[in-house]
């Protein structure tokens, strides 16, 4: 049975082996369309005889691989070749200069770590005094005037007589002026003293982490190989195709090395 017979669509409609491998995240990810890989693979290996691995997924009545069979088969292939494919695929991304065969990079890292504390002390000392005095003076004056007049008459009575006879008569008066003065003086003195003594400590801590990295690079040719040899080997690298290796690896598992026409 040929490979194209168990993969009826020949990889043209997303039913090929690389479409199944793409579901398990191969090393190349999504950089290449799996349909493109399917077409390239089946155009080169579709006429080869299917391997016993494929036949193990077929039955007496089912001669076409189901979706679950393709998924299982893709897992077997990735389990065997994933590590090698990952390393080979990384080679395609290498950056280098074609005519240089010596590369040297020296890197030095210097770390300075320290803790610095700055302390500032501010002292404020002083005395504030306030003195004051008050004087109260009060004077009260009172002035008065008085006048008194008196009239007196004396009678003489005979023996056993109820009527008196005037004997003498007097008239008198008294006049007076008075002045009173009250004076009061209150004197007071107030003194207030305030003493201030304030000290303030201000500390600033700085954590210094300083890292310096120095890199020295050298590259060139050390003369053990000629530029012509390097160019020739570079051409061989260009001629190497990563997916041609992948196709051969897949074919080893899905086909036997016999063409049938």
How would you sum up this structure, described in words?
With 261 residues, the protein is an alpha+beta fold. It folds into two domains: 3-101 and 222-259, no CATH class; 122-198, no CATH class. 29% of the residues lie in helices and 46% in strands. It has seven helices and four strands. The protein has helices spanning 3-6, 17-21, 34-45, 52-55, 67-91, 227-239, 242-254; strands at residues 48-50, 102-157, 164-220, 255-259. The strands form two sheets. A two-stranded antiparallel sheet has the order 1-4. A two-stranded antiparallel ribbon has the order 2-3. Helix 5 packs antiparallel against helix 7. 11% of the residues are buried. The mean pLDDT is 76.
What is the strand and helix layout of this fold?
Blueprint: H1 3-6, H2 17-21, H3 34-45, E1 48-50, H4 52-55, H5 67-91, E2 102-157, E3 164-220, H6 227-239, H7 242-254, E4 255-259
Antiparallel strand pairs: 1-4, 2-3
Helix pairs in contact: 5-7
Query: Can you tell me the overall shape?
Result: elongated
Low-pLDDT regions: none
| Structural class category | alpha+beta
Q: Please work out how many helical segments DSSP would assign.
A: 7
Q: How many structurally independent domains?
A: 2
Helical content class: 25-40%
Radius of gyration: 65 Å
Report the order of strands and helices: HHHEHHEEHHE
Main sheet makeup: 2 strands, antiparallel
Mean pLDDT: 76
Number of strands: 4
Cross-sheet strand order for the largest sheet: 1-4
């Amino acid at each position: 049975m040929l490979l194209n017979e168990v993969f009826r669509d020949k990889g043209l409609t997303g039913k090929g082996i690389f479409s199944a491998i793409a579901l398990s995240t191969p090393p190349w990810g999504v950089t290449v369309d799996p349909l493109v890989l399917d077409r390239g693979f089946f155009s080169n290996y579709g006429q080869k005889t299917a391997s016993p691995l494929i036949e193990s997924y077929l039955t007496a009545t089912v001669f076409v691989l189901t979706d679950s069979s393709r998924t299982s088969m893709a897992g077997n292939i990735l389990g065997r070749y994933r590590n090698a494919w990952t390393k080979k695929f990384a080679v395609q991304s290498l950056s280098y200069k074609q005519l240089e065969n010596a590369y040297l990079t020296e890197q030095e890292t210097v770390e300075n770590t320290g803790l610095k504390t700055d302390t500032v002390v501010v002292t404020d000392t002083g005395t504030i005094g306030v003195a004051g005095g008050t004087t109260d003076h009060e004077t009260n004056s009172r002035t008065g005037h008085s006048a008194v007049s008196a009239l007196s008459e004396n009678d003489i009575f005979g023996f056993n007589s109820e009527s008196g006879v005037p004997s003498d008569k007097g008239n008198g008066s008294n006049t007076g002026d008075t002045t009173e003065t009250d004076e009061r003086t209150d004197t007071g003195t107030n003194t207030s003293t305030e003493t201030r003594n304030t000290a303030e400590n201000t500390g600033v801590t700085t954590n210094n982490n300083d890292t310096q990295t120095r890199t020295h690079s050298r590259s060139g040719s050390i003369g053990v190989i000629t530029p012509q040899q390097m160019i020739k080997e570079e051409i061989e690298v260009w001629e190497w195709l990563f997916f041609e290796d992948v196709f051969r690896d897949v074919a080893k598992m899905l086909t036997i090395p016999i063409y049938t026409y």
